[in-house]
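Hi there,

I know you've been waiting on this one. I reran it after we fixed the sequence typo, so this is the corrected version. Both the input and the resulting structure follow.
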Amino acid sequence: MGPATSPQGGPLTRRGFVLRLLAGVGGVLAAALVVPAAGFAAGPAIAGRLRWPFLGGSVPPTPRATGWRAIGPVGDFELGVPKLVPVTLPVKVEGAVEPTQVAVYVVEQDQADAVILDIHCTHMGCPVAWSDGAKRYLCPCHGGAFTATGDPVAGPPPRPMDRYQTQVTDQQVWMGPLIEPA
C-alpha cells in the first residue's frame, strides 16, 4: 500500500491532513447544534404524532377528560393516607377519544370528603411517589416534595399538585374533570 494521496492526486501533506480533520470535527459540531434546533423548530408541527416506545408507557398521561367516574367506596381509603388508584377514562388522543388508564392518588379527608391528585410533579411532569416514611410525595427528578394534600414543601415545584373535582355520594368516591391551574 502506497502513501496517502490528496484529491488533486499529490501526496497528502501534514497540513492537508490537519485541515481535513478540523473540517470533519467542525461538521460534527455543526450537526450537534443544527439537529436539536431543527427538532425544536419542527416541534409544533409534529406534536402528538410521535410515540416514545422506549418510555414503556410507565408515565400515564394527565387526562383532560370530562364527566364523572366512581373510583371506589369510601371504606377502600384510609383517612389521611394517599392510595394510588388506576382509573380508566375516555381521553382525547390525536382527535379521537380512547379509553386510557391513568393513575391518581386518593386521600380521604373524612367520610364526606376526599382529595384526588394527579400523580405528576408540577415542575417538569415527573411521576411522584408517596413515601410512608417521609409522609410526603417525592419527585425523583429534581427533589420536589409535596404534602399528602398536594402542597409543595421542598424543591422546585412552582405550585401544588393538580387536583380533580371530587364528590362523595352514597359512600362512593367520585372523580370529575381535572381542575385547571389558575
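Quick highlight: Residues 108 and 114 are 4 Å apart (CA to CA).

Best,
R. S.
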